[in-house]
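Tokenised fold entry reproduced for everyone:
>
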Amino acid sequence: MSAASGNSKRYDVIVVGAGHNGLVAACYMQRSGLNVLVLERNDYIGGAAVSRSLYPEFTYSNCSYVCSLLRPEIMRQLELPKFGLQVIPYEGGCTMMHDGNHFALYDNHDALRREISRHSKRDAEAYDRYARDVMRQCKFIKPLLLREPPDPTSFKIRDIQELLYIGKRFHNMGEKRMYDTIRFWTMSAADFLDEYFESEIVKAHYAGSSIIGTALGPRSPGTAYVLLHHYMGDIDDTVGAWGFARGGMGAVSKALGASFEASGGTIRAGAGVSKFLVRNERAVGVALSDGEELYANTIMSNMDVKRTFLESMDASDLPSEFVEQVRKFKIRGSSGKLNIALDGLPEFPAIPKGAPCIRGDMHVTDTIDMMERAYDDWKAGRWSQAPYIDMLMPSQIDPTMAPNGKHYMSVFTQYCPYELADGPWTPEKKQGFANSVIETIARQSPNFKSLILHAEVRTPFDIEREVGLTEGNIFQGELTMDQLLFNRPVPGYAQYRAPVRGLYMCGSSTHPGGGVMGAPGHNAAQAVLRDLKKVA
């Protein structure tokens, strides 16, 4: 399509979408000396990493809710603590059992072994082997997170060097570990955990990480990698640790925005983009929803791959094969979210009073079979009647999120479909979904329902409409083997560059995937700077 000339200011780079990856990319490019503009359709920045006050005196992390995956290199280089970001580690977690018992997770290694031993002495002995093998996979993958994936069909020196780098790391694992790694990447979480543990509650607790944000069940091939994906973060050099951003997840975006603006960058909120402007097979600007056109030498999209190429571009500007591959990219909504204001601290009789595990993530699904049945509901086009729940009360250690004596609870749940088998979402159906989650929690907490002051309910349909994530998929695409590394999002286009010259991708649809990690934004910025000869 043609782009009319205008008198508006021209920028070096326009970034579409002020989610955390867009802001990370903008920070790096602005600090390199480029003049960068970030456009955001909402009146606030952050995308899915936001803090919002939707009930008086309470602050919700109303989409993403915990911090771990954000790369420490990015935090240091962009000086995020200087701009107010503080991450508070939480103290373990637990899964409550239907017989009144519980399984607790502790940061202290000896305490954790004693806890596992309560359920199985054999599993207590197996835990160190499990932790060692998971960390071995983390050590193999983590160095790849901040590197541009190679094109295995290319003969460019950089691609050959990257392939050799990966091959050398893989070969250095040794023959047995090489076989183990190939198996691991294609295994189900259930099969993987069966190789270590016998206790159903131990396996259920660790399997939870394999289904969060994923349209797969714990017995689906590939979920072992999803489990690993959630282990790759670290806080204060503690690998796999999780924590709360003080003030909610919006503190991450706020610090990124402040870092960007301190370098001279510009953010325009309330400026939704309707179309990328292309002239002579090159991206030259964007058209806003109100008709205004803005121009830049480089355009970068933080939107997911479907919104970028299927909704914001003319198909005639793209190769037909590429468009078809984008259509086939799997982005399936499976997650719901409740944010609840509570008049006090709920009682959980299964957990000993004063136990630190209540200050971490709490679950109520105590067998893998329960998770699989919850997934069966999603496959049938209905929300899970006994959903998997990941609930936290960050107000216990972050007093900024709720008034004194009251508490904020974040409830992330699997599974909730984007489309229902019996027709569109209605307010009544949305309340039915919320009731299934609330009743599931209430079975473990007798006073829970009486404490509820307000609840924000978000289905995948709501998340798509409000945040802009296709089908409400929090990873901007499934983290399956066919959609990782040089296959993400589309083979041949995994290096952040679109088929149209001057257009780049930086969202979680690109390598290394989703979570509040910042790596896609970092890597995309480096691709732009290399193309502009700003870095080696």
In short: The CA atoms of residues 258 and 335 lie 30 Å apart. The two ends are 34 Å apart (CA to CA).
